[in-house]
Specification:
By secondary structure, the chain is α/β, with parallel strands linked by helices. It has one domain: P-loop containing nucleotide triphosphate hydrolases (Rossmann fold, 3-Layer(aba) Sandwich), CATH 3.40.50. The chain contains eight helices and ten strands. Strand 1 and strand 2 form a beta hairpin. Helix 3 crosses helix 5 and helix 5 crosses helix 6. The longest helix is centred in the middle third of the chain and has 19 residues.
Length: 271
């Protein structure tokens, strides 16, 4: 039975084949609400595409999956309504020219205008502004980001953020919408060992608070369920928590057809 907040995620023989060949295949796993799942595999094994497919942003060709009880790919639009993207190259990247405050303000505005029920839009402006500030503050706290500690506080440009700070900002932006599922790509990219530990601690805290988390990485931490994607000639497999595998180099995967690109990007930027 699913919790009121986190979304259970499951897949059975889930796969995607495009005109240039198979992207990923035979992915089978189940994640309970509020669980942290690492998606791990070698370069070119379709990890990012799997992440986008499970969040309703890429149409698959084989098997099926469910996110929050919604069937994929048939109910992809509904899945996009409960799943949010953290950083995904080419899909939900931060704008390096924007400041932290501008990113937060824009996301809060979009959430208030398009992600809130109609009755919320009928409240006085002061109440709507106060509610937006609460959402932003809660998201920043959950992401472990305090703008006051940045070089120029909220006026710090994204280009001036450290990699871990940028990750925290992306997670905070996603959490403003209070999603049931958070998807993060390149979790450990360009992070030191200490920073990698902090990144996983962040995602685990989000999961512990009730939001299911899917995180693409090159090397998963222990005590985490690992969904390992594989090249087209191999089988995908699921590993139980506490089993660690050697790291593999990562390269983000883009949608493989024009149709898939159209499926992925517009909705992803509204997530």
């Amino acid at each position: 039975m699913e919790s009121p907040h986190g979304a259970a995620v499951s897949a059975e023989d889930f796969g995607l084949e495009g005109p240039r060949g198979r992207v990923f295949r035979n992915v089978t796993f189940r994640a309970e609400p509020g669980e942290l799942v690492a998606i791990e595999g070698p370069s070119g094994s379709g990890r990012t595409c799997l992440l986008l497919a499970l969040t309703g942003r890429m149409r698959t060709t084989e098997g099926y999956a469910e996110t929050g009880g919604l069937r994929l790919p048939k109910q992809a639009a509904a899945v996009r309504g409960i799943a949010a993207l953290g950083p995904v190259p080419g899909v939900s990247e931060l704008d390096p020219a924007f400041t932290v405050a501008e990113h937060l303000g824009e996301r809060a505005l979009l959430q208030g205008r398009y992600g809130s029920p109609l009755r919320a839009l009928l409240r006085p402006r002061a109440q709507r502004r106060a509610a937006a500030e609460v959402r932003v503050d809660e998201a920043l706290e959950a992401a472990g980001l305090d703008p006051a500690t940045l070089p120029k506080s909220g006026r710090t440009s994204v280009r001036d953020l450290e990699r871990l700070e940028a990750l925290r900002l992306s997670v905070a932006l996603a959490l403003i919408g209070r999603p049931r599922l958070l998807a993060v790509d390149d979790t450990d990219l360009k992070l030191s060992d200490a920073e990698r530990e902090q990144a996983w601690a962040l995602l685990r805290s989000v999961a512990d608070a009730g939001t299911t988390v899917l995180a693409v990485c090159s090397e998963a931490p222990g005590n985490t369920q690992v969904v390992r994607t594989a090249p087209a000639t191999e089988e995908a497999r699921v590993e139980e928590p506490a089993i660690e595998e050697p790291a593999a180099e990562d390269a983000p995967q883009e949608p493989t057809t024009e149709e898939e690109t159209a499926d992925a990007r517009p909705e992803a930027r509204r997530a």
